[in-house]
């Protein structure tokens, strides 16, 4: 893999600019008081389709050749990346095939269809998903795009932190959640290239602390169970994002489920914005170790706002 | 009453500017598609203490003499105005006495205390509330400030629409909820002085349609029952705001309870922001009569975001 440069992120941002929102950075006096830090929330919950994943999806598609674009893209996901790839594909005039387990909630299927994605249902196992995606690749010549373990996706996700640092160049830290590793890897690259000694810190639930353990052991670890409310963070790292995380991420702070719910509630009640549980994890991590960040300027990537209002934890 | 001038609103805004947030104006492609209009949401849910009432409270206090300010202010309210007067008073270095019914929820009492207001409890009747407030006026020489039927409060509330028209000078309409009448009266004044033939329209629940009936009958009407989810809109108009509403408001559109809940849900899910039920009423009104506003530029005052997350209607 060729070493990444600052220019790679600048090029990426330029490529995707017309397909994404430049999301606002919000502040809250009350949350500053509670945390003891000066906080800057990068609101990717206001991003198109409601999450940062729009950035990586748009970038990955934009990097395909015209011929590849004509044959479409495919992924397997039942979460935000399914919606992101569908909308990004529509935005770029490309077909998107989304492999989803046949037990995925109807609301998720409807969202993908609403953004123009074509759903291929399969049995709810990883093997069945991979097989179904492979079939689409063979049948249509579509390009498979991984939700997090893809360099173009990683660069795309990094543009949120890049924009945040353009607005606030002197952040001491950037906090992100850690799921499949795309967001934190991209953010850490952006902090490295655009920050002024800005350290990237991950927030991860104790219940799915594979990334924390991976950094300790030096190899990609897995979760045996995934009993967390942060449903976007159940996936594990990949061989492309893990080396970037090892090199550029300062550390990962783990949080309890109750801390995630409390952090989510604080942001809902005090900032009046809707974030999904996974999105509350980095703020929960900051609160857990607030004494270490007293007086610091801290950026927090609010990763997404797609929640089922019928299933809230409060 | 001396005729109001454009300058009165300009002076008001200048007086309160340091005590309020200039709230953002958000847009949503999806809600534009759904409504058929071009919508501009003025986000007073992001205002200090979570509602536009901060504006009127700050203005009313700022207009008192130094001597009056030293003796404090008093109101009776268990809603947003209690919090607004408490925070505005603290912001201006003034004592605030808040008369609340002894059955008010603890969370509301805590909010008032959190903003520095001093609570005086009384029996939960209007007579008891008025008596308790009168006692404070006599004991401390405090000035009573009405939540909506006070010219300085009305002007203060009007500054939200004024800011919205500074940002979007060519709105065809401004929609607001109608409760006690302060917000819609102030907004209609702002639309008159700062708009370009901009018509002000109220949204009101059928269940508490006193203002709708008042405009029809030409005198202030009351509600016999108040079975609405829009708990901020249960109050009736007053003799100071009603003439302004008669003169400057175009009309009032009534909505069903289910329409309020659906409008609230649309804004939560699509815009990822938290609004209270009362705040969804003008958007519900627009959706109900969307054919009349097709292609129009419509401003909507999102009045507040203080909801009890434990008691959501979805």
TrEMBL record, chains A, B:
**Protein origin, superkingdom:** Bacteria
Every copy of the Tryptophan synthase beta chain-like PALP domain together lies at 17-304
Name the Gene3D superfamilies on file.
3.40.50.1100
Alphabetical UniProt keywords:
Pyridoxal phosphate
Give the required cofactors.
Answer: pyridoxal 5'-phosphate
Q: Name one Pfam family in it.
A: PALP
Name the coiled-coil region(s): none
InterPro entries in alphabetical order:
TrpB-like_PALP (IPR001926), TrpB-like_PALP_sf (IPR036052)
UniProt name for this protein: Threonine/serine dehydratase
* Organism expressing this protein natively: Sungkyunkwania multivorans
